[in-house]
Amino acid sequence: MERFAFILHPLTLDDVRRWQPAVADRPDAVLEKMLEGMPPFKVSHVTGIRSAAGAEAEGWFVGCPLTARQMMALDADFVIKKIIEAAAMAETLGAGIVGLGAFTAVVGDGGITVSRNINIPVTTGNSYTVATAVEGALHGAELMGIDPSAATVAVVGANGSIGKVCSCIMADKTAALKLVGRRIEALEALAADLDGRKAVVSATTDIKAGLAAADIILTVTSATDVIIEADDLKSGAVVCDVSRPRNVSRQVSESRNDVLVIEGGVVAVPGEVEFNFSFGFPPRTAYACMSETILLALDQRYESFTLGKDISLKQVKDISAMADRHGFKLAGFRSFERALSSEQIAAIRRNAGRSAL
CA angle, 208 as apex, 204 and 213 as ends, to 5°? Predict the structure, then answer.
């Protein structure tokens, strides 16, 4: 039996209030101060994972009690110390590898300092996140009647670790690639690196300008607030939102019946899996970053597979091959916590005036 752990944290104070109704009436400032003083805690025991290759695994979810906003706003040394404490608890529970979830993989140096302070390997899960995000975006485009090879793709957050490698993959698959982010120098440097690929590549810090002509959008930022609004999107566009908290406004689903928004990186995990904790997905499905941690355990690859701020194409290919071997697959499409049927996607395509490929 292989063993892993994965670190979770509340994305917002709304999560805290939902999980702990007894404190729901506390003011935001009081709740945040409470979280700062809390130690890490065991959230649940994960059982029933059995791969297509016959390997079995169990694991634990460990809670790091800080919201996304706190992780970005508080002193970085304090935040990293909290993450290290959570990773140390994972080690004590018996995990052979620990994965960093959501913003625990964003702050600081992408897990390098955490790995130096515990005795088990650490992974951010970002390699499998990239693989599933690209796969989902391209498949969604095809269902919407978009030929990816002739499309315009925008990557929002292109200067981040996930965004860079998504951009590298998409540059070989599409006609035009818009790199969107906050730092123009980094975006232009990436554009220069991608010069000569199939796509015509351009860079901008203006999100509205970057999305105006985009047929396919991958959004992979570390923003803690919504950055994509309903009027930013072209009719018929496909948006794969990998970020948590999400980058796309819920208003898109309410007012744009001609745009397909899908959650990135949702994976079907093999076996009679019991996570014993609800993060809003159907049974036996998980985030891709969680799934990378599980895959490495099942494959007995107890190593810091994805660490730091850089991801290679080889890592993405290797983890994809591992997923195929163990029977992990991209789960059906979801949008704003709801499953999307093929009929619903076909209706969105018709509303946009597109024909099936």
Answer: 85
